């Protein structure tokens, strides 16, 4: 991923927070037919390593688990909020007119080795851990145990577990850091007025000293 210096986010904890908040990953692997991409929610797990590991599951009918090279890195792409930035939002537009449109976004690339786990007990634990995290905050959190046991056991046999041992993370926060203070302020104002508070918050956080 191309990352100009002012858009680089090197802090592992910040990148891991994005992964936890936006767990739907685009998982890129190399198959016999070439590059393949699957959209899979992945649960970040602390395994004692610097970057952690990503756990998830796929349908047993998905060829991903039998058609990849275990010796080649896989890439999981996580993306947070994104927004079109209009030139008309820049305070300097009235002064010079030298402004152009752009797109703001925050993304994390997680690289690592993919392991297939065909173990019903592991898959159940993975489902329980993922569900518990994603259900947190709901008035009436659902758990795997809420479903009939025979129903759950039958479904578990139809999926396969995946684990990615993350070896490195890259973070890119392209959120107007290359603009002047007055332009950043005007962008934040315009984002809030256009009902895009999440991106406004990202721009605000990025400009803090």
Automatic annotation (TrEMBL):
Coiled coil: none annotated. InterPro entries: Split_barrel_FMN-bd, TR_PAI2-type. It holds the Pfam family FMN_bind_2. It comes from the Bacteria. PANTHER family: PROTEASE SYNTHASE AND SPORULATION PROTEIN PAI 2. This is Transcriptional regulator.
């Amino acid at each position: 991923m191309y990352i100009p210096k002012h858009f680089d986010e090197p802090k592992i904890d910040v990148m891991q927070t994005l992964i936890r908040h936006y767990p739907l990953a685009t998982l890129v692997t190399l198959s016999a037919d070439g590059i393949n991409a699957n959209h899979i929610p992945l649960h970040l797990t602390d395994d004692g390593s610097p970057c952690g590991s990503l756990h998830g599951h796929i349908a047993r009918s998905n060829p991903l688990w039998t058609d990849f090279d275990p010796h080649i890195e896989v890439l999981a792409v996580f993306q947070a909020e994104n927004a079109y930035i209009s030139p008309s939002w820049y305070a300097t537009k009235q002064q010079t007119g030298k402004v152009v449109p752009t797109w703001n976004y925050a993304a994390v690339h997680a690289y690592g080795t993919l392991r297939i786990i065909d173990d019903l007990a592991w898959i159940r634990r993975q489902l329980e851990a993922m569900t518990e995290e994603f259900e947190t905050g709901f008035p009436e959190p659902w758990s795997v145990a809420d479903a009939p046991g025979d129903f759950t056991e039958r479904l578990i046999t139809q999926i396969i577990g995946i684990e990615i041992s993350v070896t490195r993370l890259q973070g890119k926060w392209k959120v107007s850091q290359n603009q002047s203070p007055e332009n950043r302020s005007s962008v934040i104002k315009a984002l809030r007025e256009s009902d895009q508070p999440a991106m406004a918050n990202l721009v605000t956080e990025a400009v803090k000293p």
